[in-house]
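User: Okay, second chain of the day. Same drill as before: sequence in, C-alpha cells out.
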Amino acid sequence: MRIVKLAAVLLIFGGLTAYTLQPNKMLNYSETVISGKIDGKMQYRNIFVIDNFVSDTIAVVPITNNAFNYTIEKDIVLNKYRLSFDGAMSEAAIFGNKDSIYIDLKVGKNGNEMKVTGTRLAENQYSGSTEERWSNVEYYLQENSMLESPAMVTNAIVNEWTDFMSESDKFRTADNYVPRDDFMEKDKMMITIKYLNFWNTLVKKREALFPGTGTPETADIKTMKKRVPLDDEALLNNAGYFDYVKSTLIAKDREDIDENTKSLRAIAKLPDGSFKDKMLYSQLNKSLKEASTANERTDLVAAYAGSFKDTKYNAIILGNNKVLESLSKSMPAPAFDAVTIDNKPVSLASLKGKYVIIDVWATWCGPCKYQSPFFEKFALKYKNQPIQFVAASTDKKIADWYVEAKAKSKSVMQLHINDLDRFEKQYAVESIPRFILIDPQGNFVDSALPFPSEQVFEKLLRQTLGLAEEK
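Assistant: Same drill. C-alpha cells below.
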C-alpha cells in the first residue's frame, strides 16, 4: 500500500515538475495595440513608431498625461521598431501584426529604463544568440588569418553556425516564457545570415589574395543558403540581410566598376514591389551620400529615382538629395541661433570672420563624451589661429547641458541650439557626434569631418588653416 501511495506521490510530483518546466508562449491579440506609461518630469505628446531600415514613420501614437493606448490599423511586419518620443529620445521594441504590447518607461537623468510586456514579452528580453560572443571565424577574417586554408575556415563557419542555432532554443524568461515560433525562425535566419556574410567575405578576400583559385562551396554552405530567401521584407531591418542580398545579387558581376553602381543596377532589376523599393531606397541613399560631386548625385537621381513603385520614396530621395546639395563644399551653412552658458545669444552670422569648427553633441551620447577631450585638445593647440571651436548641444533639456557644459574647457565655446528640429533637419544630423567645418564667409568647408580621435582630422584642419604638415 505504501508503495502504491509513494508511486502516486511521485507521479503527481513528476507531473507538476513537467508542467512547471514546460515553457509558456504568449498568443496573438485581436488587433495591434501599443499602450503604456512614462514616468518622468517631462510631458510628451507623441511616439513616432519608425521602421529603422528606411527611417519611415509607420504610426504616430498620441500621448496624454504621459499615458497612451493606441491601435495601429494597418498591417505591420514583426520587427524591432524605433520609438521616438517627440524626437527627444528613442527606445526600441519588438512587435508585429496582432500584438498587444505594454511599455513602462522610466526617464531618469542618468539614463532611461524601459520594460516591455504583453504578447512579445519574451522577444523583448531576448538579446540574440550571437551577440557579445567570441567568434574564431570573425577573428580569422578580421586578421586575414588562415585564408590560405579555405576548408578549415569553412568548417569553422559551419561549426559555429550549428552551435549558435542550437543555443537559440535554450532561452527562457524568469517567468519561463519563450519567444514565439515566428520570432525564433527569424532569429535563426539572422544567425544564418551572419555566417553566410562571413562566407561571402572569405570568398571575396580569397579572390583578391589568390585570384583564380576559387573557394569550394560545401554542401553545408549550400544548406545554409537554402534557409535564407532573397526577398523577405521582414528581414530588411537587419543590416546584415541587406548586405547578404546585395552580395548575392552582384556575385557574378565581374565588370570593373564600383560596388555601389553594381548594387544599384542589380536592385533596379528586381520585381516591382515594397521589397525592391526599400532595397533601392537604402542603396540609392547610400550612393548619394558617398557621391563625390553634385553632378554624380544628379546622375544617380536621374537614373534611379523614378524606379520606385511607391512614389513616397521618390519624394524622400529628392528631398535628401536637396539637403546633401545644400551641405556641399562652398555652399552657405544654414543660419542657426544658440545661447551660451551665460545665456547670451549667439548666431552663426556673429561668428563670421574666423573658421568655425562645430562639435554637435549631447550629454546622453557616449561616443560624444569620448571625442570631446580630443576636440578640446585641438582647441587649446590652435587657440592662436583664426578658428573658433564650438560645442553645440542638441540636448532637449537645457538644464542637463548647462551642468555639464560648465565643467568643460573654456577653450571651446559652449552653445545650446535654440531650434533643434530646424538645426537637425537643415544640417542632416542623423547621428552624433558630428563635426562641421565652416569658412570665415559662413560657407561649408566640410559638413561631416572625421572624428578628432582620427589622425586625418588634424591633417585636414592644418590644411584648411594653411599650416605646414607637422613632422
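Residues 318 and 454 are 32 Å apart (CA to CA).

User: Thanks, on to the next one.
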